[in-house]
Design brief:
With about 120 residues, the chain is mostly beta strands. It has one domain: Immunoglobulin-like. Helices cover about 5% and strands about 45% of the residues.
């Protein structure tokens, strides 16, 4: 559990398309090549410390003729942002993926002793 002891708590959020491989025959759609996509997300302003990040797929467009396998996670979380990582394996064919994310954490406040803006 993450406990916040701070005067200012912030929430940043987004909904981002990670890829759309169906239109141009990309690797996720053909099922050949890299089975991982990594995208950097930058927060609208830095948090005071690393926030808690929640991430989920908000759109997944998969081929129905193959097994549906997917893993989405947030990695490399910092005060400034994080990496969205989508992975699949085996014969899964993925046309496109969009993720929705939310970060909750401490923000800097006017009463903080140091000027950090």
């Amino acid at each position: 559990m993450k406990v916040f002891i701070n005067q200012a708590i912030g929430i940043d959020q987004g909904d981002d398309v990670l890829f759309a491989d169906y239109a141009d025959g990309g690797e996720m759609w053909t099922g050949h090549g890299a089975r991982e996509r990594r995208t950097k997300v930058v927060f609208s302003k830095p948090f005071k410390s690393e926030p808690a990040v929640h991430i989920a797929m908000s759109l997944w467009d998969m081929d129905s003729a193959t097994n549906v396998r997917a893993d989405v996670t947030a990695e490399m979380i910092t005060r400034e942002g994080f990496d969205v990582v989508f992975r699949t394996w085996g014969d899964t064919r993925v046309a496109r993926v969009r993720v929705r994310w939310m970060a909750i954490g401490e923000l800097f406040h006017d009463d903080d002793w140091q000027d950090v803006y």
